[in-house]
TrEMBL record:
Name of the protein this chain belongs to: Basal cell adhesion molecule (Lutheran blood group)
Subcellular location: Membrane
Classification via PROSITE patterns: IG_LIKE (PS50835)
Transmembrane segments: 279-301
Organism (species): Rousettus aegyptiacus (Egyptian fruit bat)
SMART domains reported for this sequence: IG, IGc2
A Pfam family the protein falls into: Ig_3
Bilayer topology: Single-pass type I membrane protein
Domain Ig-like, chain residue ranges per copy: 19-85, 93-165, 178-256
A GO cellular-component term linked to this record: plasma membrane
Biased composition (Gly residues): 339-358
GO molecular function annotations of the record: laminin receptor activity
């Protein structure tokens, strides 16, 4: 007796003519197809072609099928009947003992089962993120952490029937107080900041229920899923460093119903901008002063004509209208002569000469 395995709702299953044939005869023989039910023959079809087609095969059609030929011209030792066993492969939906979603406390344990019915007997395997965890129906976890949270897949397959496979996903939630992950203050380390420097702070947290993130300074961005997954959410804050922040720092807090976690970003001593500005102003003032001295010296050299001019101009000529008196109160002779020569003309010549030299 032969055995067949057919897929549900597959292409028609045909018993070949050669399987139930009596050879050459003067007239075509008659073929009778039947199914054995409780050792009784249930006739399915009688024809002259020698084949039987079963359409949209269901698992209930598994059993023993046979054909018999009525050929009175056949030899006495000719085989005039044959049977075969038909097995319809199937795979039922998978069942999870704890449902499709399960919440565990941080540090808890888990043992859940995945069951399935099928023919041939299916193989079961558990995976997480496409990483195999073990074969068999049972998934066991102990001392779960936030990294344990995620989607676990139970896969059922049949090596002999590759077209038949099913899977079902278990979503595991791990409840606990938030875990906080702050990023370093960039672009400088503590103690190397200057007043007015801009800094971007990032704070990430995870937990269940999903934690809320709050900054001690205004301007923080709403939390959103962080790159890399694993349940992390992150928020960023961009601000300018001040001396007040160097004393108090900037805090980030994550909270959920199970608790909270807090981190403070410190900047250390912040150098004021005024010190650098004062040095710059002093350097500019010195440069301008030196430039003015050079210009003044150059201007004097151009105006004096010869080295003693500026000194002569500084001494000045005695006023034309106030002749110098002697100790006795009388005028000096040379001064008297100049005055007699014409006070107005001499004065003009004296003053004109001074202007010509300087």
């Amino acid at each position: 007796m032969a055995a067949w395995t057919a897929l549900p709702s597959a292409s028609p299953c045909t018993i070949p003519r050669s399987t139930c044939s009596s050879g050459w005869a003067a007239q075509p023989p008659e073929y009778t197809f039947y199914r054995l039910q409780d050792k009784q023959e249930d006739v399915l079809k009688i024809n002259l072609e020698g084949n039987l087609t079963l359409e949209r095969v269901q698992r209930g059609q598994s059993g023993i099928y046979g054909c018999r030929v009525e050929d009175y011209d056949a030899e006495e030792d000719a085989e005039l009947s044959q049977t075969l066993e038909l097995r319809v492969a199937y795979l039922d939906p998978l069942e999870l003992s704890n449902g499709e979603e399960l919440a565990l406390p941080l540090g808890g344990s888990l043992a859940t089962n995945c069951s399935v019915k099928g023919l041939p007997t299916p193989t079961l395997r558990w995976t997480k993120d496409s990483i195999p965890l073990g074969d068999g129906p049972t998934l066991s976890l102990s001392s779960v952490t936030f990294d344990s949270a995620g989607s676990y897949t139970c896969e059922a397959s049949m090596p002999t029937v590759p077209l038949l496979s099913r899977n079902r996903i278990l979503r595991l939630l791990v409840e606990g107080s938030p875990e906080l992950r702050p990023e370093e203050t960039l672009p400088k380390a503590e103690g190397s900041w200057t007043e007015g420097d801009e800094v971007r702070l990032v704070c990430s947290a995870r937990g269940y229920p999903e934690p809320k993130l709050k900054w001690s300074q205004a301007g923080g961005h709403p939390a959103e899923p962080a790159p890399g997954g694993q349940g992390w959410v992150s928020s960023s804050l961009t601000l300018k460093v001040t001396s007040a922040l160097s004393q108090d720092g900037v805090s980030c807090e994550a909270s959920n119903p199970h608790g909270n976690a807090r981190h403070v970003f410190h900047f250390g001593p912040v150098a004021p901008q005024t010190s650098q500005a004062g040095v710059a102003v002093m350097a500019v003032a010195i440069s301008v002063g030196l430039l003015l001295l050079v210009v003044a010296a150059f201007y004097c050299m151009r105006r004096k004509g010869r080295p003693g001019c500026c000194r002569q101009g500084e001494k000045g000529a005695p006023p034309s209208g106030d002749p110098e008196l002697s100790h006795s109160g009388s005028q000096r002779p040379e001064q008297t002569g100049l005055l007699m020569g014409g006070a107005s003309g001499g004065a003009r010549r004296g003053s004109g000469g001074f202007r010509d030299e300087c």
